[in-house]
Write the structure tokens for this entry.
Amino acid sequence: MALTDLEPIIDRSTEPIIIAGPCSAETEEQLLTTAAELAANGIKILRAGIWKPRTKPGGFEGVGKPGLAWMAKAKELYGLKTATEVATRQHVIDALESGIDILWIGARTSANPFAMQEIADTLAELGAQNVPVFVKNPVNPDLELWIGALERLHNAGLRRLGAIHRGFSVYGKHLYRNLPQWHIPIELRRRFPDLPVICDPSHIGGKRELVSPLSQQALDMGFHGLIIESHCDPDCALSDKAQQVTPEVLNYILSQLVVRDPQGTTEGLSTLRRQIDEIDSELVELLAKRMRISREIGLFKKEHRMPVLQMGRHDEIMKSRCAAAKELDMDPSFMQTVLQAIHEESVRQQIEIFNKR
Ligand code: PEP
Ligand code: MN
């Protein structure tokens, strides 16, 4: 059985876990300025990339080991816990040796079972099973690969595990830099209810304006926290500048978030849910009845050598139902989508009848 006996990754608090800090540690001054401002705003866990996996060579590949000393300084000066990304055996050794508290695995690494095994083996070898490790989703939308990465750490004895939803790679221009495909992290949570899953709105959105709405969406869906990129001077950042916010803006974003109470009373909710259940079962029965009649019509058309599709009738149905929906305060385009799906299925059923000898 996979991912059992998990322990709380950070603490037992019900507050959302908030991790914030620059995409990359760039200079001692940049890191410490950002850290000081974040700490002053109540942030407890500082993130920064020390080794940066870049798409092409020649980009800023991180400051490497010297950055670890700056992280240690931020921890000492501002009482922050520190988190960084590791991708190789040496990264794990260096990060833990310099006192990094929390590790995360990047999206390109979690997609690579060899790298995951190497990291898991190194943690076991160092006796570092107590270190909290977050695993980002692999760049490609493959839930099993994501779970496999977590399992490799679990098999190595790690129990303080968490997952980070950072969206999935997509070709071409889209609203999001990485598509959220929320159903994937939701399925992960359904399969492993004890595994904390936090959201990375910075890498999903790829732009500042999307950090706040994505964060709220994640909390509304019961995610356990957020990891957000924050830089003292985002426009001058050496990596991911479009998606980083200043600590001040981050503070504002966090102050506006509504945290839902997972323990909130569900009495009123269950009455409403019962009503929804009843309506849904009526809908299913009505649809089944509609399909039966549709098949009868199909038989009639076949016997009278009529075509399946009669455009005039189709247009009339769409028009009258959408108008009725509008009268009842529903969005006509929603009604159109529903009717089209029903109509497509009716046509499919009638064609089946036509094809029967
Ligand atoms: C990061 O967190 O800066 C990062 C490189 O993220 P990802 O692995 O999600 O691309
Ligand atoms: Mn980044």
